[in-house]
Write a structure and sequence with these properties.
By secondary structure, the protein is of the alpha+beta class. The chain has two domains: 108 residues, Beta Polymerase, domain 2 (2-Layer Sandwich), CATH 3.30.460; 114 residues. The protein is built from eleven helices and four strands. Strands 3-2-1-4 form a four-stranded mixed beta sheet. The longest helix is centred in the middle third of the chain and has 26 residues.
């Protein structure tokens, strides 16, 4: 049974204001509820930003969440403004564009992000996918892990699309038509795998090889300016 997210978030927001008062700087939604793609199994991914956050704030927030319905589905992120302002910029790219604001604003983040931060987000995403996909192919051989890797790959696909079009598209239906063929195949596979409960060995091998090869290509394509300059220098010296 899907949750009436509008009613739920207003109930949550009211309790947050009672708990933190003027210290509450921002509330947002991420994940499938933030994108309007929720299913019965979706988590409620809540973003909370305070003027500052300490361990007592986290305890108080957790206790408050315990009083809300659907507690087992609630997850998310809580931070102070200073920490967010100094966060790794490649993480902030995805964080900013994948967060739907409910209360307050985090638009200051947009001014912190440059093109190299987006390239770095793609590069880190590709490296993580390459590592974990290779590990899974050799050691775990786990269908569910492969499915989660394809889900993670969606964020890398969004970043690639943003660099190419200068538009961030949250919804997969809006993203698919503008993608290059390699990214389209990854996203189509990610969508298809959400409906599957198990994979035949041939499918597991094919989807793993597709993701592993794609990640490998991205690592080369989105190398850092420093790495590229070093490579060119070595080639010239040779």
């Amino acid at each position: 049974m899907q949750i009436d997210i509008d009613t739920w978030i207003q109930q949550c927001l009211s309790k947050l204001k009672d708990l933190f008062g003027s210290r509450l700087a921002f509330v947002g939604l991420q994940g499938s509820y933030g994108r309007g793609e929720e299913t019965d199994d979706s988590d409620i991914d809540v973003v909370i930003i305070l003027d500052h956050a300490d361990s007592e704030d986290l305890k108080a927030y957790g206790t408050m969440l315990d009083s809300l319905p659907n507690r087992e589905k609630i997850c998310g992120f809580i931070s102070g403004l200073q920490e967010l302002n100094n966060w790794e910029r490649s993480d902030l790219f995805q964080f900013y564009y994948d967060t739907t604001p409910i209360y307050g604003s985090i638009d200051f983040i947009k001014e912190l992000i440059c093109e190299e931060d987006v390239r770095r987000a793609i590069r880190i995403g590709a490296c993580n996918l390459y590592h974990m996909c290779g590990h899974n192919m050799v050691h775990e051989k786990d269908d569910e892990l492969l499915k989660s890797l394809y889900k993670s790959a969606t964020f890398t696909v969004q970043a690639i699309s943003y660099l190419q079009t200068r538009t961030y598209r949250k919804r997969k239906t809006e993203l698919l038509p503008v993608l290059r063929q390699p990214e389209r195949k990854i996203l189509e596979t990610a969508i298809a795998m959400r409906q599957q409960t198990g994979l035949a060995q041939a499918e597991f091998d094919r989807f793993s090889e597709q993701l592993f090869s794609w990640a490998s290509d991205l690592i080369a394509e989105y190398q850092s300016d420093e790495t590229r300059a070093n490579t060119e220098s070595r080639c010239c010296d040779a």
